Structure formats: structure tokens, C-alpha cells
Inverse folding.
């Protein structure tokens, strides 16, 4: 589960990170992402594994714009009650 470390980053920056995540490189356990913003070249380093970085960015975007970034289903709940037990249809 994401720790929501990027929840205070604006949506535009998060979307830029996500769009450029395909070109991110992992160096020494850090995720390094480079992109251009307002005509400037930007390089960011995060002390996170690549998969955790993506989870954190996605979790923050789900909060910022839940209509566009629907929450992922991360667990399933099963019910084994039958119709006669009052739990089935």
C-alpha cells in the first residue's frame, strides 16, 4: 500500500513524472527521472525502487483526480454464505 508521500505535489507535476516514468532509470536503488518543464531540463532522484515510485505517483493521482485515475482494487472480499443463510441472491 502506498504511503502517499507525493500527495502534496501538484497534479501537473505528477502527470509529468508518470508520462516520463518509462524512461526512468534505476541507479543504486534510486529512481532517476529526467524531463523538460517550461523549457528547462529537470532531473529528479528518488530514494525509492521504481515500482514503489510508480505506486506512489498513482496513489497521489487517485486522490487529486479520482474521476480520471480510478482507485485500483487491491484486495478482494469473499462471502461464502448461501441464499438460505441470508447472504446470497
Amino acid at each position: 500500500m502506498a504511503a502517499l508521500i507525493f500527495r502534496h505535489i501538484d497534479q501537473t507535476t505528477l502527470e509529468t513524472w508518470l508520462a516520463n516514468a518509462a524512461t526512468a532509470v534505476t541507479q543504486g536503488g534510486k529512481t532517476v527521472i529526467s524531463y523538460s518543464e517550461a523549457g528547462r531540463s529537470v532531473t529528479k532522484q528518488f530514494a525509492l525502487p521504481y515500482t514503489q515510485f510508480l505506486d506512489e505517483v498513482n496513489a497521489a493521482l487517485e486522490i487529486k483526480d479520482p474521476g480520471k485515475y480510478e482507485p485500483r482494487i487491491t484486495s478482494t472480499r469473499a462471502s461464502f454464505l448461501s441464499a438460505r443463510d441470508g447472504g446470497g441472491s
Summary: The chain has a mean pLDDT of 77. The radius of gyration is 19 Å. Residues 11-72 form one domain.
